[in-house]
Amino acid sequence: MSAKTNTAGLAVRRAAAQRLQLVLTGAPFIPFGAADFEDGRERALANRLVTTALRRHGQINKVLDKVLEKGTPKRAGLFEPAIRLGIAQLLFLPELGDHAALHLAVETIKRDRRASRFAKLANAALRNVQRQAESWPLRAQDLVPDWMFARWTKRYGETQALRMAEMVLDQPPLDLVFKKGVLPEQDEAGFAHIAPLLPQSYRLAEREASVADLPAYEDGQWWVQDLSSTLPARLAGPLEGKKVLDLCAAPGGKTAQFCDLGGLVTAVEIEKDRLKRLQENLTRLNFHAKLLEADVTQLDGAGEFDVVLLDAPCSATGTYRRHPEVLWHRKERDFAQRAGLQAEMLDAAAKRVAKDGQLIYCTCSLEPEEGENQIEQFLDRHQEFVLAPVQADDLHGWSAPIDVKGYVRALPCLELPNGCTGGTDGFFAARLQRVA
Ligand SMILES: C[S@@+](CC[C@H](N)C(=O)[O-])C[C@H]1O[C@@H](n2cnc3c(N)ncnc32)[C@H](O)[C@@H]1O
């Protein structure tokens, strides 16, 4: 290894350790951008290191339990993130070389004021990992917390739970929604590798450019939206001339769908910056909606919308392939707490639905407290609503995400339309109708 590679390699490991440290203390992972690393290869390496450590977090926990008998030292600065990155390289990125993995992890620790006194410990632990690299028992179920795996098994069965756990290793694909009547140009100048999922939804088989550099971005011909996230708005049916209230709307994937379907859309969002982003997204797409910066639970008005959609804030466990850290940041008790706010929001949303109108509720959660249970409790509180079960026709004949009660329960490991591969985000949606 040349001195130059070594210095650059160390800078990448140090930055990766600092970024991973933030995530270990509860922050979401924000990928490195051009401002962090001008050199694209260094940037890609830093992102790959942190992402691998996060996707493999549960398995690395098990390895750490074995090689650090007394546990991870406390108040030890970059010790924990650096040793995690070292293990991630040794076991899961062998092409980067064992020597680099070990040496650069230990150097990162040596040069950190708080961690340096543990450099020998790190060295011994990483050598131990290296010696036994072939024999660590790396189980798929360890990719998610034990309590969450037990929940998934109870709810979805062991086979699906294992498949879902394995999917934390996958880089999620990029799905685009094209405006009504627009078809992607399928050639080298346009989208050479794109596959249809459902009407208007396409999957990019290869992502070679950043989103803003993809064809026709500036023309506003399409927006990014994972397949399962498009399902709730599809339940509304034709919207020409209908009044639609989109609650918890930013960044606006569903707002765009409603505008595209011809709805007269009012979108509500509590966070100013996110509302601004929503407006920018609509402007690029040349869509128009009335935007309100407001708290859904504090809105005035009653019975004036044909369709109300509530995309409630939730644990977001369904997005774990994009954000593997959600699996480790969540606690089981969180679900019940969030469910209280979701119920309050649902009650507020219900007031705005006109007679015979629809209320669509959705979350990107895999947890029943934020999905099925929420709706069953809502129907107990609100006799003026009934469940309008989702039919395969509502989803253009795709029945895989519809459960026996007529809820949309999209699991990441679902069989996709048109034989597409690559999974989807976890999502729940229910459609209710106001009957009195
Ligand atoms: C799951 S995201 C919505 C995604 C969006 N519907 C889409 O399709 O792009 C939830 C949003 O709800 C917003 N939110 C959270 N609490 C809210 C409240 N009390 N009132 C209004 N918006 C809220 C959050 O700021 C966040 O933007």
From TrEMBL:
Annotated SAM-dependent MTase RsmB/NOP-type domain residues: 150-435
InterPro entries: MeTrfase_RsmB-F_NOP2_cat, MeTrfase_RsmB-F_NOP2_dom, NusB-like_sf, NusB_RsmB_TIM44, RCMT, SAM-dependent_MTases_sf
Keywords: Coiled coil, Methyltransferase, RNA-binding, S-adenosyl-L-methionine, Transferase
Record has Transferase as a keyword: yes
One family name in Pfam for this protein: Methyltr_RsmB-F
Residue ranges of coiled coil: 268-295
UniProt family annotation: Belongs to the class I-like SAM-binding methyltransferase superfamily. RsmB/NOP family.
Protein name, per record: MFS transporter
Species name: Maritalea mediterranea
Phylogenetic classification of the source organism: Bacteria, Pseudomonadati, Pseudomonadota, Alphaproteobacteria, Hyphomicrobiales
